[in-house]
């Protein structure tokens, strides 16, 4: 079920109505959330409910089993079982054909022809997200930082919690699970802010991301080479499409959770205002970047080792992060680029940051602007690999960006591709997004005004954003959220 669908507009009020009527019955509330979550997920394809149920049951039993053994080796065996089952299922559905095809292509280059045993494997929606969320539970139980729950309804609801089931944020067991174990209170202020955050999420998705998608799909999928200026337009639109699409989903998820009395972790914090690539990753998809930090980077040695070893740890973490996003070499290259961007900070620090801190205001402001522009440019180049059909196409687009065709006017080409009107809506939406997020950069979302803020500032902003959603939204068929495919 999509947040931006008519079904969800009917589904959510029903869920809320029954949920609130059970306000004094915690176990019944959790059971209702679990049922609603399975309906939400099964709306896409009910067959994969068995997969979700099976992996969740495995983690539930493994965690309980850890409490029955005192020897570390026995507990480690159960943790290994949890990890193997979760990553084995994820690996089969997401990477089987990728690795088989890559293996066959490698032999083909050596002149050896192999027959392809590939399968028509459908990728279950959200499997990367709920797999990682479940693993935080068993790993935390093994480490002793979370006590295993013997209430299956509570645990199953934690794994399948519908607001963030299919695209995050990837919650930690220590943060979300306790919220299922105690009564929740939905305050009037929390409810109102949840609605505001959902409104902002719908603006990001329907006005910015979906209008950008028309431009991006119309340009990136062209079989002929594009002029550098057109590549630049396509790349900028994709940068804001993926940001507005994914942050929009996160805002709707967080807002929906607040209507139920839950607090989910913030997943985005104005990443395009970051002054370095490491800072970008502290602001972008925070739940995933911290997951890889805690469960991959730090176990590899993190920053406790020498600089060379630390740089290798960083590269490995980013390349695994790239592979997490999809079974394509374009994602691996994308991860490699972000690792390469981050390694110099490990080896030489950030001289520009030190300079900006020590300089006076006249020098500091241009330095900060330069750092933001440089960071965005580096991220933009990496996004080309993320979106392109294959690595060769991505390199070809970058070559065009470096050619004289970058200085040509893109208007004629854009008119020929039929994307000018959508580009106009998208550009307006991007401008509104950047202005509001800059003004509200210290807040969890752009419509999170303080109660002390003047009414003449708050209500015009609420009204304008809601009007933009109604008037400027993409009116074609419902578009999936980009991160559903991951």
Provide the fold topology.
Blueprint: H1 6-21, H2 26-42, H3 49-66, H4 72-109, H5 127-143, H6 152-160, H7 173-180, H8 188-220, H9 228-259, H10 277-283, H11 286-297, H12 307-325, H13 329-348, H14 351-358, H15 361-387, H16 391-401, H17 411-417, H18 420-439, H19 455-472
Helix pairs in contact: 1-2, 2-6, 3-4, 3-5, 3-6, 4-5, 6-7, 8-9, 8-18, 8-19, 9-15, 9-16, 11-12, 12-13, 13-15, 14-15, 15-16
Quick tags:
single chain; 486 residues; mainly alpha; 19 helices; globular
Folded structure, characterized:
With about 475 residues, this protein is mainly α. It has 19 helices and no strands.
Count of individual helical segments = 19
Q: What structural class do the secondary elements suggest?
A: mainly alpha
Strand content: under 5%
Radius of gyration over all CA atoms, rounded: 23 Å
General form:
globular
Strand count, sense and barrel status of the largest sheet are: none
Low-confidence stretches: none
Number of strands: 0
- SSE ordering: HHHHHHHHHHHHHHHHHHH
The helix fraction, in percent, is 55-70%
Distance between the termini: 16 Å
The pLDDT mean sits at 88
């Amino acid at each position: 079920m999509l947040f931006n669908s008519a079904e969800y507009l009917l589904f959510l009020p029903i869920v809320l109505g029954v949920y609130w009527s059970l306000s004094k019955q915690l176990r019944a509330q959790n059971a209702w959330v679990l049922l609603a979550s399975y309906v939400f997920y099964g709306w896409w394809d009910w067959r994969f409910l068995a997969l979700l149920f099976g992996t969740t049951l495995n983690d539930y039993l493994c965690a309980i089993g850890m409490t029955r053994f005192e020897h570390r080796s026995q507990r480690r065996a159960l943790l290994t079982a949890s990890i193997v089952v979760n990553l084995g299922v994820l690996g089969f559905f997401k990477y089987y054909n990728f690795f088989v095809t890559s293996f066959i292509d490698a032999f083909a280059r050596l002149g050896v022809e192999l027959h392809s045993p590939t399968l028509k494997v459908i990728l279950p929606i959200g499997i990367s997200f709920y797999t990682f969320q479940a693993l935080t539970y068993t790993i935390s139980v093994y480490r002793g930082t979370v006590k295993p729950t013997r209430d299956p309804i509570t645990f199953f609801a934690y794994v399948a919690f519908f607001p963030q089931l299919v695209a995050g944020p990837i919650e930690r067991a220590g943060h979300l699970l306790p919220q299922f174990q105690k009564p929740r209170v939905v305050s009037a202020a929390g409810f109102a802010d949840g609605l505001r955050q959902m409104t902002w999420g719908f603006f990001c998705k329907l006005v910015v991301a979906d209008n950008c998608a028309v431009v991006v799909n119309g340009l990136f999928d062209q079989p002929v080479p594009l002029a550098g200026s057109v590549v630049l337009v396509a790349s900028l639109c994709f940068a804001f499409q993926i940001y507005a699409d994914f942050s929009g989903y996160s805002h709707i998820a967080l807002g929906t959770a607040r209507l139920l009395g839950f607090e989910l972790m913030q997943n985005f914090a104005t990443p395009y205002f970051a002054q370095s690539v490491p800072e970008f990753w502290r602001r972008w998809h925070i739940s995933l970047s911290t997951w890889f930090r805690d469960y991959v980077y730090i176990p590899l040695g993190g920053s406790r080792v020498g600089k060379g070893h630390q740089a290798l740890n960083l590269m490995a973490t980013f390349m695994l992060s790239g592979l997490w996003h999809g079974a394509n070499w374009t994602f691996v290259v994308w991860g490699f680029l972000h690792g390469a961007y981050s390694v110099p900070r490990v080896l030489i620090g950030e001289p520009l940051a030190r300079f900006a801190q020590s300089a006076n205001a006249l020098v500091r402001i241009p330095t900060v602007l330069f750092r933001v522009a440089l960071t965005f440019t580096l991220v933009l180049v990496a996004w080309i690999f993320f979106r392109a059909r294959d690595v060769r196409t991505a390199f070809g687009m970058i070559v065009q960006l470096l050619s004289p065709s970058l200085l040509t006017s893109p208007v004629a080409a854009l008119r020929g591709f039929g994307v000018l009107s959508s580009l106009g809506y998208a550009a307006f939406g991007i401008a509104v997004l950047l202005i509001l997020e800059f003004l509200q950069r210290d807040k969890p979302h752009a419509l999170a005004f303080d109660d002390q803020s003047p009414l003449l500032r708050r209500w015009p902003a609420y009204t304008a954003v809601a009007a933009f959603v109604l008037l400027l939204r993409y009116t074609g068929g419902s578009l999936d959220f980009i991160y559903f495919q991951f």
